[in-house]
Amino acid sequence: MTPAYQVAGQLLWRFRFDLAAVLIVAAAMVVAADRLPLQGAAAVVPVLGIVVSVFIGFRNRNAYNRWWEARTLWGAILINARSLNYALISYDDGRPEMSVVLDRMRRREARHAWQLAAELRGTSGAGLETLTPEDPPGASAADLLRRQAADIAVLSSAGLIDRQARRVLVTINSAQVGATEGLERIRNQPIPRYYDLFIRGLAWTFAVLVCTRVDAAGHNTVVGVLVGILVMALFVIAERIGHLLEEPLSDNVFGLDLDGICGRLAGDLARPASGLT
Amino acid sequence: MSPMRTPVGSRAWATVARVAWRLRWDLLAVLAVAAVMTVLTDRLPLKSVAPVVPLLGIVASIFIGFRNSNAYARWWEARTLWGGAVANARSLDNALVALDDSSAEMAAVADRMRRRQARHNWQLAAELRGETPGGAVTQLTPEDPPGASSGDLLARQGADIGLLTRDGMIDVQGRTLLVSANSAQANTAGGLERIRRQPVPRYYDLFVRSVTWFFAVLVCTVNPGGHGRVAGIAVGVLLMTLFVVAERLGHFLEEPMSDRALGLPMEDFCARLTAELLGPTSPLAR
Fold this sequence. Notes:
The structure holds 2 protein chains of 2 kinds.
Chain A: H1 4-14, H2 16-32, H3 45-91, H4 96-121, H5 141-157, H6 163-188, H7 193-213, H8 222-245, H9 258-269
Helix pairs in contact in A: 2-7, 2-8, 3-4, 3-6, 3-7, 3-8, 3-9, 4-5, 4-9, 5-6, 7-8
Chain B: H1 12-22, H2 24-40, H3 52-99, H4 104-129, H5 135-138, H6 150-166, H7 172-197, H8 202-221, H9 230-254, H10 266-278
Helix pairs in contact in B: 2-8, 2-9, 3-4, 3-7, 3-8, 3-9, 3-10, 4-6, 4-10, 6-7, 8-9
């Protein structure tokens, strides 16, 4: 587990521009607050605080659901790969021609997971073709599942598996298609842009108003200024943390550990000394 | 994987401008109410209302939050169902590959089924938007009637599964797989139609909107900044705008399929699905 101070450091670095903006706004307000005719705004700050909390809470809840759905779908990818492996073990009749196909399907299932992780991160997945040299180097995750289906047809047409086994393997393949699509959906479909902008705008409006008339201590004390900065930073960071959670697949630092999951999956599928891990 | 980031994947200012234009009447109403209240507030006996405004603000926040939460759930369900349509198309395609007996007869039927699956999704998207699909869509399967609905097309998929079975091209297990894929697509289409045709109850919509406007007017009535000062009026207008826009954004989210500008990019989903089923050179593929 990453130490807490390291996580805090990474967060601070990620939010450096937001925090710098908080400090700039606070500094400007220290100078300008008493000159601006916004004393009356103090009365609406508590109401606005509730509104902002409701919306940031709403955003963070949805972001967490999204993050958890992504993790659940990666769990399904792992389960589907294991199910395929167990099914292939069950159908294996020991014939060399069958072993060749089964071995290829296991390697392709591992490549599919790595390829999917690469696509979700927006990288090429270069080097993964060594897992299944039988497939084209540029095959996408969807292509690889289609090739799994073609190998099911090979097994079936050669009489290596019966109709029941074919049905089970196609069902597992369809489950993997569903999980893959779910992950692509989360990756490709962010929260609506107008909603994102509205909540961010709301958080900043409140932050500025807090700093405008603010704190009970007033702008003429260091404590008052510090309280204002802390409250501003709190709301701005809360909103940004929701944003981080919303992108569990494309963020290498705060996203899900896709490499760890793929490594485990490959380990489950690999026979000893296959080198998949 | 095709890049398909967002229906409104434009710059922030363009999004703000688009939303502002859509909300132009609401924003004008906010300004009109603020102007009227600036004149009338001191003449109306509404000073005693001030203590209830924060409380009403909490109530309005809860209702707007509730509405937005449900609207987002509805939007995400629609997006998930469209993802299901893509997954169903891939599953059907993969099942046809797995069941292929390499005969020319089967290749012809499988090709028709792939084209029809693509057409079904385009047709579904058009029906959800309340539009008629273009000629390129009906040309995907000239074997089917030009006016076939999305439901008709799935029924015809069922008929082709029957044909494959009767002619011995697939066995009963294969038939089960294809029927399951067709049923999954029927479920997906039904879910999308449900979201499109069943808005949030009208009385609820009106109630939340009324609560929002009531609070907005009261805020302006007891403007804490004082109506004699520009800054006080600005704060009142800002607060009114905030609540009204928040409520309207929930309304946009609630209609993810009928709004071309702010809704889901259904044509992108269909194009991607067509590319996967029929290849990237298909006229309807991206």
